[in-house]
Structure formats: C-alpha cells, structure tokens
Fold this protein.
Amino acid sequence: MYELVAKTKELQIRAWKKNLSDISIHTLQERLDATEKNGQDPFSNFSDVDMLQWFLQRREHLNQQHEKSTRTIQSYEQELLQFIEQLITYSTEIDIDLEKVVDGSLFKSLSPRHIRRYQVWLSEKSPYVATKGAYSVATLSRKTTIIKHFLKFLFETGYITDPIHEGFYKISIRKDERPNRDLGPKEVIQLLDYFKEINHPIVFSIIHILTMTGMRNEEFTRLRVKDLLYDSITSTYFLEVLGKGNKRRQIPLKEKGMNSIRMFRSARSLDDIDVAEGEDPLFTTNTGRAYSPSYLSQYITKAIKESGLPFLKFRSSSIGPHTFRHAFAIISHLNGVDVYQIMRSLGHEQLSTTEIYLEKVFEKERHAIHLWKSDVFGEYI
C-alpha cells in the first residue's frame, strides 16, 4: 500500500513537470484574451500548472528589457517546483489530504495551517536538514519570499479565495546571521600575489577584474566581446554590463584591468579583442564556452580554498565571486568614496543594500575605542 501511494505521488510530480514544459505562454495569453472577450472570470479555466506557468512567464512591461531575466525565472521555477514536489511527497507530514483536493487543485486545497506546517517541516524535518543540517536563515528567507510571492499572486488574481500567503511565520535575518563576505585590500592582494606566483593567469584575471569592477557573478558570465567598448572622450575602456532587472550600466576599466582581460584571453588562446567576433564570450572556460554562474562560483571557490593561504583559516565562510563585489565596496570606502557613489557603481537600487555590504566596516570604524585619549588611559592605550 505504501509503495502504491509513493508511486502515485511520483507520477503526480512527473505530470507537473511535463505539463509545465508543454504549456506555451502564448496559448495562455490567447485563453485569457478569450475569457475577457466573453466577460468571464479571467482564470476560470486555468489549472494549477497554467497558473504557475503564467506567474513565471507572463509579460508585465511594454519594454521587454525590463522583464525578469531568464536566470530569475529559472530560479523561481526551481524553488516553486520543489515546493510543489514537497507538498505532494510529504503530504502526510504537512497534513494535506490529496484525495480530497478542491476542484482537482492543490493550491485551492491549501489553508494557512498547511503553510505554517510546511514552513516548520522545511526548517526542522526536511531531508535536507536531516542529512546536511539546518538551512541558513538567509536561505529560508529566500525560499519563503519566492513561495509567498507566488501564493499572493494566486490570491490577487482570484484563483484562490483565501490569502494563504499570510500564513507564513516571519523570518528576520539578524546582522550576525549573514554570511561573512567581507574582504579587504590586503586579502585580495594576497590572493593576487599567490596566483601570480604560481603562474595561474585565469584565476588571477578573474579575481582582479571582479574586484576592480564590482560586477555580479551573473554579469561577468554574461559579458560578450561587444560589451567591451572604448570611450574616445576620456580615452578609457569600459564594460557595458546587463544587471538585475535587465538594467544596463557602464563600468570604466583601468589599464591594468584591461591587461588582465588581454592576459586571460591569451591564456585561453582566444582571439585578440580587436579581431574577435562581437557575440563571442569575453571570458570562457577551457572548452571555449561562456561560464555559467554556478560553474564560475564553484571554480573560483575551489581554487581559492586550495591555495591554503593563512588568512582563510580565520574566515567563517568561503570566498567566491560575490565576495569580490563586497571587496569592491570596502576598497572604495577605504579610498574615501561616498556610499551613494558606491551604490550607483554596484547597480544597487537601495542604499540599504550597499550599507549591508559595509555595515561591519562601519561598526568597527565607529567603535568607542577609537575616541579614547592617551591622557585619560595613559600609557596603556
């Protein structure tokens, strides 16, 4: 009996994934247009799978450059499919009766108590927790935000009648619960010196460029030769970067940054910038393909860990591409750059995000000990 139930659940999950890949966003738009024309409720003939696909792929902006990036859509799809798979697989633990679903809809059968039970199960009893340990608060917060966003969408569109997204417990991330991504100039220099000494131009160049530009991992991997431009007015090169929300910004390159790009391409036996095709990746793996964000992260993290540099022993988290974005913010601050200017350079929407990058530095700089005077505490200060 147990095996039959497990098999049935597995088939349900497979059907979800297959149906999602089979549905065209254009077909869904045509169906919505037809219901609007006939004066019907817009989503009256939509299924759960239809609603998920519409949530992921629907067009919201006239200018398509402002739509969600492919990577964002993939991230949302992965998290939501995992959420659905877990609801089905562990329905007993979450107290969902799959034999009594409303109108054949899993989403319409959920109530706030299911959401609370799922959230507790995920954080305390899920297979991940059992085998690898507790999720970080930041990871739980990200998962909750995506699922809550989707369930709120279902309620606001009228597909479900209860605001079940309000059933989530709040997750607050304290300052000391964030992973330590601080990296100062001395540590970056140690890394650059190490990879220079062992003659590893690939890792050297990636670290150098990421630090000098403050680019996101995804921005770096997306770069094409055509994105490297020359400004005749200032006589400098710059990178035109496509950031979050498909927003573009221009990042100036100092000459040594350009030297690292040339060195990287030479080490990979790639065409010189002046003769390379514009659509070619600016940086490639040893197979000649553009890096994926996940591969670049694994590659850099592993190379740095294997360096065995002494300062790494005092860090609570590993160093990956995103760490050098924090290094850019910290080095800029130490050079007296205004925090608003750092914010714009990083492509942040909110000043508060930039301040998170710098909060530990601010805290140390503003400590009371720096105001102590020798005439108060004598020779021991």
